Amino acid sequence: MKVKGKAIKFGNNIDTDVILPGKWLSLIDPKELAKHTMEGLDLTFPEKAKKGVIVVGGKNFGCGSSREQAPLALKYAGVQCVLAESFARIFFRNSINIGLPVIECKGILAAVNNDDEVAVDLEAGKITNLTKNQNLQGIKLPPFIMEILLDGGLIENLRKRVTKK
Amino acid sequence: MNKIIRNPKEAMKMNISEKILAKAAGKSTVHPGDIVDANVDVIMVHDLTGPLAIEAFKKMGVNKVWDNKKVVIILDHQIPAESVKMAELHKMLRKFAKEQSVRIYDVGEGGICHQVMPEKGYVTPGSLIVGADSHTCTYGAFGAFATGIGSTEAAAVFATGKIWLKVPETIKIYVKGQFQKYVTPKDLILSIIGKLGVDGAIYKSVEFTGPTMKAMSTAGRMTVCNMAVEMGAKNGIVEPDETTSKFLEGRIPNVKESFKSLKSDADAAYEKTINIDVADLEPQVACPSSVDNVKPISKVGDVEVNQAFIGSCTNGRIEDLRLGAQILKGKKVKSGVRALVIPASQEVYAQALKEGLVEIFTEAGALVCGATCGPCLGGHIGLLASGEVCVSTSNRNFIGRMGSTEASVYLASPATVAASALTGKLTDPRTVGAK
């Protein structure tokens, strides 16, 4: 599975309250959620993300609330993949479970600038900054997690397992 | 490849979190880094995470939850419904609970999920509890392994009763010393987060131990474990003891049986140990907009406040209300300050009424509301306008957390919040409280 897009960069400790503020949690249509993605930091994010972007973050990306609406909003806003120095654990699991690829990669924040064209090979954990012609190696996802992602998320993965039985 | 070769005797040495995970996974031992398929004892969802979980569950092709006695739904974040949208979500949760014969705690029955879960007997020492809320780690105060998950994962647990978990490394925090008057477990956990940082325990288990933890009330332990997630931890945990059984007596069956032998082995492995002495600890404040931006109150400077909030799953317990009331008794909230008091549950509310605390707050000019998460996450009740400042006993001070993205939130103990309500600016409770 390969994804590609322009990078939008954020810093360390990006919490789920800024990704999707609490006042929108009563929305359950992901397309509606997407309109408020990153509202705490950048009101123009949904417009920028439409074309399909790669979000790059620092340490502890997605910290705070367990709200799955945060990765859902990112995904439906057009985010192809989130790359970060490290992730908060609930956000990491939620992203995989809703089919949003996430890869941990040391040095990613320094290696990518806003608007750089970035390509990601998910199975290999390989990240290429096409603008700078530079390769980085992220932490490969274990096969059982990769399978959930390839199925499109935990719903499809579980449905497949249930039907097999 | 370097393979770690373990001494077979080492297999016996586990800390309390590892013991619980081993049991849940049906194994005799586990080691940090192992990925286990664990059996869940209880799962909880609330009104903001439950609806997505139900939608996901319906798409999974399963008709019934795996065990209707082990699934709990608690309405708490936006109760009573503050909008038609929320009313519809509450309706959906009630319908699901009825169809699945699952217990739902509706408006007037419960309150904030993390208070209701132990009160109503869903938290047993040694059990594995997952909840679709990040502060599920609160139940570690009772010696349970409890961690937060998302909605789709909750749906998978509804369907299977199982979850994959990576066994975390554990950080031991050894706490000694006696708190000064008006210095509280909230100040302790804020100072720990200030030292370790908001990612200081990322992916890790944190075990709180030592004489100060041993002497601490259940309420204090809940405050401490509640905020473990604010440093990235998977769970926080305290060894259960007499204090634990006193709280749980009459709420769960066979209390003492439940934690027989539930202790960390003397030579269990820890990633590191941090020693803390609270004897000289000052009241602490987490300044905007990060929970690790912690300063002792003497270093915060002059900060005027518009709102003072006592409540939330961190500090909405009877002990917290007593502390706030002790400071506000017979005095008046400063003109221009909105003081809000929100008991964490109906049980806490009833107790506060019995003890005359509601009267003390009301006479001081504070507004006492029904049990809900309320302003903590900017859902309803007491949202902030741009430029406003709130001093709050809750757990997060992120940008936009309690309303406007241009508002500021300072996190502190119930004593500091009450003292600040009296003066209209951030105030050391030791300077205004009765000696």
The CATH topology of chain A is Aconitase, domain 4
The CATH architecture category of the domain at 287-431 in chain B equals 2-Layer Sandwich
* Share in helix of chain B: 25-40%
Mean pLDDT of chain A: 96
**Which structural class should the secondary elements of chain B be placed in?**
alpha/beta
Bulk shape of chain A = globular
Name of the CATH superfamily of the domain at 287-431 in chain B: Aconitase, domain 3
Radius of gyration of chain A: 15 Å
Which class of the domain at 287-431 in chain B in CATH terms? Alpha Beta
Largest Cβ-defined interface: A-B, 42 and 50 residues
Percent in helix of chain A = 25-40%
Give the name of the CATH superfamily of chain A: Aconitase, domain 4
| N→C terminal distance of chain A | 27 Å
Total domain count of chain A: 1
Structural class of chain A: alpha/beta
Instruction: Provide the succession of SSEs of chain A.
Output: EHHHEHEHEHEEEHH
- Total beta-strand segments of chain B: 18
Low-pLDDT residue intervals, each spanning 5 or more residues of chain A: none
| Low-confidence parts of chain B | 1-5
Blueprint of the fold:
The complex is a heterodimer of chains A (165) and B (435).
Chain A: E1 2-9, H1 16-19, H2 30-34, H3 45-49, E2 53-57, H4 69-77, E3 79-84, H5 89-97, E4 102-104, H6 108-111, E5 117-121, E6 126-129, E7 134-137, H7 143-151, H8 154-164
Parallel strand pairs in A: 1-2, 2-3, 3-4
Antiparallel strand pairs in A: 1-5, 5-6, 6-7
Chain B: H1 16-24, E1 35-39, E2 42-46, H2 50-59, E3 71-74, H3 84-100, E4 103-105, H4 113-119, E5 128-131, E6 145-148, H5 151-160, E7 162-166, E8 170-176, H6 185-196, E9 205-209, H7 211-215, H8 218-226, E10 235-238, H9 242-248, H10 255-258, E11 272-277, E12 284-286, E13 294-296, E14 307-310, H11 312-315, H12 318-328, E15 338-341, H13 346-354, H14 357-364, E16 367-368, E17 389-392, E18 408-411, H15 414-423
Parallel strand pairs in B: 2-3, 2-5, 3-4, 5-6, 8-9, 8-11, 9-10, 14-15, 14-17, 15-16, 17-18
Antiparallel strand pairs in B: 1-7, 12-13
